[in-house]
C-alpha cells in the first residue's frame, strides 16, 4: 500500500511486497476501506474477520461481474484494468452467482469428494518419495537447494496434471500461464494480451489433445459432459472451467507447502513443538493458511444492492476484494499476537479455503498433498536448516498469491 488517490482510495501494492503490513495499515483505517487495485480499479477491502465473513455469506454479494459490476461495461476503456479479466472475465463457477454457479460447480464437485481424493493418496506418496530422492541428490555436500522449485512446486503440478491428463509437453506452458495470471506487478495491456492468448492456445491444445486421445482423466470427463450431457457445458465454460481448476489446483498448494517450510525453519521452537507431537501437522497446515494464506486477496465480489457495513455504505454495483489475509491476521479475532505463527493456537476457523457456496473444492486434495509432503520432508532430513536470513526472502510479485519466490535450504545443517 503506497499512495492514496484524489478520492481517498488507498492503492494496493501490486507487488504484494509486505502483505501483512499492508493489511495492518488498511485495518487501522477502518473495517472496510476504499482501495485501488493495480491499474486503478476501485474496490472495497474488508479488513476484519467478522466483516469479511458476513460479506462472503451475504446473498446480496455476487461473484458475477456481467450481472453485478457497475464498471463491467466500461472495462474496455481502461487498458490497465485488463489484468482482472483473467480472474473475472471468464465464465466458470468462480465468476457466477445463484443457479448458474450451482450448475457449473455440480459438474466438477463429484471429482473432489473426500473419497475420490483419498484414492489419490498412493500417487501423492509415490511422487513425494521420488521428489525427496531428487532433493537429496541435489543437496549433497551441504549444497543449498531450493525446496520450492524441487519439492513444493513439483508435487502439486504433477498431481494436477495427472488428474487432468495434461501431457508432459504442455506442463511448462500451463505453469507459465498460471504464474502470469497470479502476477499483478505489471497490469499493462501486453500482459493482458499475453494471458488472453495463452488461455486460448494452451488450454485449447489440452482440449484438442484429449479429444483425440481420451483418457481416464478429468479433461476427458469434462469433454464428455460438454458433448453428451444436455445440462452440460458450453465450449467457453469448458475452457474456463479447466483454467479455474488447473490454475487453482497447484500454485495455491505450492505456496502452502513452501510457506509452511519457511514458517517452521524460521522458528526452531515451533519446529520442536511439531517434532515432539505437541502440535499436529494438521495444525501446521491450518496455522500456515491463517498467517500466510496462499490466496491473500481475491478479485472480485460485487454488491447486488446497497450494503451497510459497520457504518460504511458499499453502493450496489461496487466491487469488493475478498481479503483472506486481513481476516487471518485480525487481532480482534485472533488476539494481539495474531501475526505470530503458533501451531498450538488451534486456529481451524481460518477462511483461507473460502466459506459458503464458493468454498474451495480442492481443499481435501491440498490438505492431502501438504500433509504428505511436510512430514515426509522433515522426517527424511532431520537436519534441515534454512539457507536464508530473517527478512531476506522475497514474495512472488502479486497481491493475490501469498508465497515466497524461493525457499533455499540445506538438508543436513
Ligand atoms: C492451499 C491450497 C488452496 C487454497 C488456499 C485455496 C483457496 C481457495 C479459496 C479461498 C477459494 C474460494 C474463492 C472464493 O472466495 O470465491 C477457492 C475456491 C476454489 N478452489 Fe481452491 N484453494 C486451494 C487448492 C485448490 C485445489 C488443489 C483445487 C483443485 C484441484 C482448488 C479448486 C478450487 C475451485 C474449483 C474453487 C471454486 C469454487 C467455487 O467458486 O464454487 N483449490 N479456493
Structure, explained:
It is a single chain. By secondary structure, this protein is mainly alpha-helical. It has one domain: Cytochrome P450 (Cytochrome p450), CATH 1.10.630. It has 18 helices and eleven strands. The strands form four sheets. Strands 1-2-3 form a three-stranded mixed sheet. A hairpin with a 2-residue loop joins strand 7 and strand 8. The model has no long low-confidence stretch (mean pLDDT 94). Protoporphyrin IX containing FE binds next to helix 13 and helix 18. The site of protoporphyrin IX containing FE has 26 residues, from helix 13 and helix 18.
Write a brief structural summary.
This protein is mainly alpha-helical and about 425 residues long.
Topology of helices and strands:
Elements: E1 10-11, H1 19-29, E2 32-37, E3 41-46, H2 49-57, E4 61-62, H3 65-68, H4 85-88, H5 99-108, H6 114-118, H7 121-138, E5 145-146, H8 147-152, H9 154-163, H10 168-182, H11 189-212, H12 218-228, H13 235-266, H14 268-275, H15 281-291, E6 298-303, E7 307-309, E8 312-314, E9 319-322, H16 324-328, H17 331-334, H18 363-380, E10 385-386, E11 408-410
Parallel strand pairs: 1-2
Antiparallel strand pairs: 2-3, 4-6, 5-11, 6-9, 7-8, 10-11
Bound molecules: protoporphyrin IX containing FE.
Residues 63, 93-94, 105, 160, 244-245, 248-249, 252-253, 256, 294-295, 298, 322, 324, 352-354, 358, 360-362, 365-366 line the site of protoporphyrin IX containing FE.
Amino acid at each position: 500500500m503506497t499512495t492514496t488517490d484524489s478520492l481517498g482510495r488507498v492503492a494496493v501494492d501490486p507487488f504484494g511486497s509486505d502483505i501483512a503490513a499492508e493489511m495492518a495499515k488498511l485495518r487501522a483505517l477502518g473495517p472496510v476501506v476504499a482501495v485501488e487495485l493495480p491499474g486503478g480499479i476501485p474496490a472495497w477491502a474488508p479488513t476484519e474477520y467478522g466483516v469479511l465473513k458476513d460479506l462472503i455469506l451475504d446473498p446480496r454479494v455476487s461473484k458475477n461481474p456481467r450481472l453485478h459490476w457497475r464498471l463491467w461495461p466500461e472495462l474496455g476503456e481502461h487498458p490497465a484494468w485488463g489484468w482482472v479479466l483473467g480472474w473475472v472475465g471468464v465464465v466458470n463457477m468462480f465468476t457466477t452467482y445463484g443457479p448458474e454457479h450451482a450448475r457449473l460447480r455440480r459438474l466438477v464437485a463429484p471429482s473432489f469428494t473426500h473419497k475420490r481424493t483419498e484414492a489419490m493418496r498412493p500417487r501423492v506418496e509415490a511422487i513425494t518419495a521420488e521428489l525427496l530422492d531428487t532433493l537429496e541428490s541435489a543437496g549433497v555436500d551441504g549444497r543449498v537447494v531450493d525446496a520450492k522449485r524441487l519439492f513444493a512446486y513439483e508435487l502439486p503440478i504433477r498431481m494436477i496434471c495427472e488428474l487432468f491428463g495434461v501431457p508432459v509437453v504442455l506442463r511448462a506452458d500451463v505453469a507459465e500461464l498460471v504464474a502470469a495470471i497470479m502476477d499483478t506487478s505489471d497490469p499493462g495491456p501486453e500482459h493482458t494480451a499475453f494471458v488472453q492468448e495463452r488461455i486460448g492456445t494452451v488450454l485449447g491444445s489440452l482440449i484438442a489433445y484429449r479429444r483425440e486421445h481420451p483418457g481416464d482423466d478429468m479433461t476427458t470427463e469434462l469433454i464428455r459432459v460438454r458433448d453428451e450431457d444436455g445440462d452440460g457445458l458450453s465450449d467457453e465454460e469448458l475452457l474456463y472451467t479447466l483454467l479455474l481448476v488447473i490454475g487453482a489446483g497447484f500454485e495455491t498448494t505450492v505456496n502452502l507447502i513452501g510457506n509452511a517450510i519457511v514458517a517452521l525453519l524460521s522458528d526452531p521452537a515451533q519446529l520442536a513443538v511439531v517434532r515432539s507431537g505437541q502440535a499436529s501437522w494438521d495444525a501446521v497446515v491450518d496455522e500456515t493458511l491463517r498467517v500466510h494464506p496462499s490466496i491473500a486477496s481475491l478479485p472480485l465480489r460485487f454488491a447486488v444492492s446497497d450494503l451497510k457495513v459497520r457504518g460504511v455504505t458499499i453502493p450496489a454495483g461496487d466491487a469488493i476484494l475478498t481479503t483472506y489475509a486481513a481476516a487471518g491476521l485480525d487481532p480482534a479475532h485472533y488476539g494481539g499476537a495474531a501475526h505470530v505463527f503458533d501451531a498450538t493456537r488451534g486456529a481451524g476457523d481460518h477462511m483461507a479455503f473460502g466459506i459458503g457456496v464458493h468454498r474451495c473444492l480442492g481443499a481435501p486434495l491440498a490438505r492431502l498433498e501438504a500433509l504428505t509432503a511436510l512430514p515426509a520432508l522433515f522426517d527424511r532430513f532431520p537436519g534441515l536448516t534454512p539457507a536464508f536470513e530473517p527478512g531476506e526472502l522475497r514474495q512472488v510479485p502479486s497481491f493475490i498469491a501469498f508465497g515466497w519466490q524461493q525457499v533455499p535450504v540445506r538438508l543436513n545443517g
